[in-house]
Amino acid sequence: MDRIVKGVLNFRQNVYPQHKDLFGTLATGQNPDVLFVTCSDSRIDPNLLTGSDPGDLFICRNAGNIIPPHSNETGGMTASIEYAVAVLGVSHIIICGHTDCGAIKGALDPDNLKGLPHVKEWLGHCRSAMEIVRERHTIPFDQGVPHELLNEAIEENVLQQVQHIRTHPAVAAKIATGKVQIHGWIYNIKTGGIRCCQQNDTLFSNFDDQYADIIEQL
Ligand SMILES: [Zn+2]
Asked: Is-annotated flag, keyword Repeat (predicted)?
């Protein structure tokens, strides 16, 4: 805790004064352009890896960067997505998975989650992705998915969550009218690289290829 307290003091004395104007503007409202959904994993810093500032990203985090498909039951993710899209009017939704994801490791082998009933239930939202990997590699239903397939499972999970978010009515409406675009990302913790896909893709590509049009104009 010492480091955290020291950090707060440093923020108050040094960081805040440097950004006083920005915080002054943000004090009365936010206007983020991006809803950023990612894993709770401590190794991911959305602002750091996108070079963005406070006020730029509306961030939702949970174990496994999961978006439960829409239902009439209300959950934290459902409410946050609805608010970001319908009220804040974000134009882009980035769903960012990452390498070495503990949640996906758990989803690959749910028998190891016996003492964690809530984790097990939550990771049920990844099941289709795990089943795709299992089917592709003809792994019998009574066997766990080998960890060599972790990266493939992480990618499939992001592809699946991209589909899930489209079932949320506010998102479906904005996609249908071209007002929101969905991006799937995989952040590589070791290399700092990002692989990505767009809402209709089934494969991931290099970041620089995916965003070549934007990069050209920089
Ligand atoms: Zn994770």
From this structure: no
